[in-house]
Amino acid sequence: MAFNPIVDEDKCQGCSECVDVCPVEVFEIQGEKSVAVNAEECLGCESCVEVCEPGAITIEET
Ligand code: SF4
Ligand code: SF4
Hints:
This protein is α+β, with helices and mostly antiparallel strands. The protein has a single domain, classed as Alpha-Beta Plaits (2-Layer Sandwich), CATH 3.30.70. It is built from two helices and four strands; from the N terminus they run E-H-E-E-H-E. A two-stranded antiparallel sheet has the order 1-4. A two-stranded antiparallel sheet has the order 2-3. Strand 2 and strand 3 form a beta hairpin. The longest helix is centred in the first third of the chain and has 5 residues, at 17-21. One iron/sulfur cluster (SF4) binds next to helix 1. The site of one iron/sulfur cluster has 15 residues, from strand 1 and helix 2.
C-alpha cells in the first residue's frame, strides 16, 4: 500500500510542525505554505496529521 499526503493550502498556516515531525522529510515550506515535495516517501504514520492544528493534512491511501 502507498500513501499520498495532501496539504490543503487554504488551511495551512505555515507553522512547520509537519516539516519537523515527518521522519522521512516529506514536507518543505514554500512561500509560507507546506508542500509535500517528497510525497512518494510517505509511510502513512499520520504524525503530521496529529500535529497540524488547523487540520490541513490528509493522508490518502493509494
Ligand atoms: S503543520 Fe499544518 S499548518 Fe503547519 S505547516 Fe504543516 S500543514 Fe501547514
Ligand atoms: S504520514 Fe508520516 S511519513 Fe507521511 S507525511 Fe505524515 S509524518 Fe511524514
